Backbone:
């Protein structure tokens, strides 16, 4: 009987031990990927952004491509639509700029805007939702689109009100 119990125990212990080793290895390997760990976006954290699937928006070092441009927009705004077209037409110039398009309308409208203007196809463009109260508390927005340019350390560089050419935006990065 003793031998049967030992054999049963070995059959259980070995797979459990193997699983534990695999889990520890996975945990340890993810600890070394500092680029994929959520990081603070400075003052932008006050916006409490949500992804379009209603999950919390997280930003990592891997997401940042040099500087950051936060754009508050409304899908029905003609100036915001023109800004989206400006971005799309000049995306080759914006390859080193991470763009976060922030809307305060229902998420479905933000999603439709991202598809209509083709911006969701670019890896350096993300769409998010922020409550209008949070956006107004952070920036005194009086015109849309509202563009806030940040350096790679998330320090504010320049604010733009209304449609702004990509060349003008990029001129502040030099």
Residues:
């Amino acid at each position: 009987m003793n031998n049967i119990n030992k054999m049963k125990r070995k059959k259980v212990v070995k797979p459990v031990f193997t699983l534990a080793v695999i889990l520890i290895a996975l945990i340890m390997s993810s600890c070394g990927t500092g680029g994929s760990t959520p990081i603070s976006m400075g003052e932008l954290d006050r916006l409490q952004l949500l992804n379009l699937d209603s999950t919390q928006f997280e930003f990592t070092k891997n997401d940042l491509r040099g500087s950051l441009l936060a754009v508050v927009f409304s899908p029905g705004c003609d100036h915001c639509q023109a800004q989206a077209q400006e971005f799309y037409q000049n995306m080759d110039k914006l390859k080193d700029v991470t763009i976060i398009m922030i809307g305060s309308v229902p998420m479905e409208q933000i999603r439709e805007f991202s598809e209509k203007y083709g911006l969701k196809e670019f890896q350096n463009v993300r769409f998010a939702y922020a409550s209008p109260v949070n956006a107004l508390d952070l920036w005194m927005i009086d015109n849309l689109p509202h563009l806030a340019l940040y350096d790679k350390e998330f320090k504010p560089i320049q604010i733009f009100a209304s449609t702004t050419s990509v060349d003008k935006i990029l001129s502040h990065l030099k």
Remarks:
- The domain at 42-171 is CATH 3.40.30.10 (Glutaredoxin).
- The chain has two domains: 2-32, 42-171.
- DSSP finds five helices and five strands in the chain.
- The two ends are 79 Å apart (CA to CA).
